[in-house]
Amino acid sequence: MTKKLAAEFIGTFTLVLFGCGSAVLAGFGIIGQDGIAWAFGLAIVAMAYGIGPVSGCHVNPAVSFGAWIAGRMPTGEMLGYWAAQCLGAVVGAGVLLLIASGAPDYSLAETGLGQNGYGVRDAVSNQGSPGDYSLISGAVFEVVATFIFVVVILGVTQRNAAPQFAGLAIGLTLVAIHIVGIQVTGVSVNPARSLGPAVWVLGDALMQLWLFIVAPMLGAGLAGWAFRVRLLTADEA
């Protein structure tokens, strides 16, 4: 269990540092939205092959919840994963803040740490939806996107799937989700990924965090239920 928790900590740390870091350190003026999307996806691909054999590379409380609902994970292990994932995300965002603060033109209040948000974006604090999308839009996107993401994860890791391609399928799905959704919420589909930056940025990022916990958990729960009732489970040979 210690190895699994260490792997989940490192995996979530890496996702936040590289994913959110691509937005903060490279940003829209250098690599653009597509570049940020690929940073998140490639971080997941790397961790899937790096720590997947140890912990399954959930690096996401919603994924662990979906696996639990599907009957693939005991309660105690899920709670341990949640703790490791959230801690990894907070530390990852903290390291990103330390790096970003070395630039003379960086301001946590104005630039942030790639936090998620909804509603009209504040011109001063840079918090809210990048595209000024409403709470309803953000909620619908996060539920649906997380549902699709967890369906892919549970699907490519089931017994009859091809495990050697699982990391690629999961990472590419996350890329597609980000390409579509960055302008809506900045894309969470992962409560830990949202928690990490919000703890340091505070303000609306922390006030709006509830959505990026509730919506991904709901989407993941629906995906887990679909596998638990064998709606999306492949027939065994």
How would you describe the overall organization of this protein?
The chain starts with a helix and ends in a 9-residue tail after the last helix. It is mainly α and 237 residues long. The chain contains eleven helices and no strands. α1 (2-30) packs antiparallel against α2 and α7 runs antiparallel to α8 (166-185). The chain has a single domain, classed as Glycerol uptake facilitator protein, CATH 1.20.1080.10. It is a multi-pass membrane protein. This is Porin. The chain crosses the membrane at residues 12-31, 37-59, 79-100, 135-156, 168-189, 209-227. GO terms for molecular function: water channel activity.
The main β sheet shows up as: none
What is the straight-line distance between the termini?
Answer: 32 Å
What value does the Rg take, in angstroms? Answer: 17 Å
Structural class from helices and strands?
mainly alpha
What would the principal axes of the Cα set say about the shape? globular
CATH topology: Glycerol uptake facilitator protein
Task: Tell me the domain tally.
Answer: 1
Average pLDDT number = 94
Distinctive features:
single chain, 237 residues, mainly alpha, Glycerol uptake facilitator protein, 11 helices, 70% helix, globular
